[in-house]
UniProtKB/TrEMBL annotation:
Component of the cytochrome b6-f complex, which mediates electron transfer between photosystem II (PSII) and photosystem I (PSI), cyclic electron flow around PSI, and state transitions. Binds 2 heme b groups non-covalently with two histidine residues as axial ligands. Binds one heme group covalently by a single cysteine link with no axial amino acid ligand. This heme was named heme ci. The gene is petB. Heme c binds at C35. NCBIfam families: PRK03735.1. This is Cytochrome b6.
Amino acid sequence: MGKVYDWFEERLEIQAIADDITSKYVPPHVNIFYCLGGITLTCFLVQVATGSAMTFYYRPTVTEAFVSVQYLMTEVNFGWLIRSIHRWSASMMVLMVILHVFRVYLTGGFKKPRELTWVTGVILAVLTVSFGVTGYSLPWDQIGYWAVKIVTGVPEAIPVIGSPLVELLRGSVSVGQSTLTRFYSLHTFILPLLTAVFMSMHFLMIRKQGIPGPL
């Protein structure tokens, strides 16, 4: 093992990277509320893991979506546990994001030179809510269906572009298979990719600028 480690160390300088990560200065005023961002990241990773597991059984069609979820809950070993963890960690992620935004605002963490960190954080908050909206629809039960119908119908109140926006979200004039396909693609591919990108930017800026001092 020593020779293997030395081989990687010579090429990647693993120890230097580890030293840089562990030697970052933490101001004395930092308390447990400064961990909310890290908890949000943990929830996101749990979401990715459990969500990936569920994609092996979920069928994104209007005729099979609900049945596949029921199969996961009743027939798959620990399927009920995987889905429950996914559901509750999603709620936890939303709560942590809300608390994190309040903490940053109340402690002035959005002020110069951390404006871009704040902007990426707000974008991540919007993405988190989008996760909730798209994921809520995937079981395609009565609650999910009507939630999609209401949410996608909101832009219709916008003059001129309202109707085209509704049709873009739904994939057609009415809610149906095209809508479920769009929401499934958003929930499992586009939103996770965007979240990973903006989270990387967010944490790199925090790493570069450090934790802001007390008010």
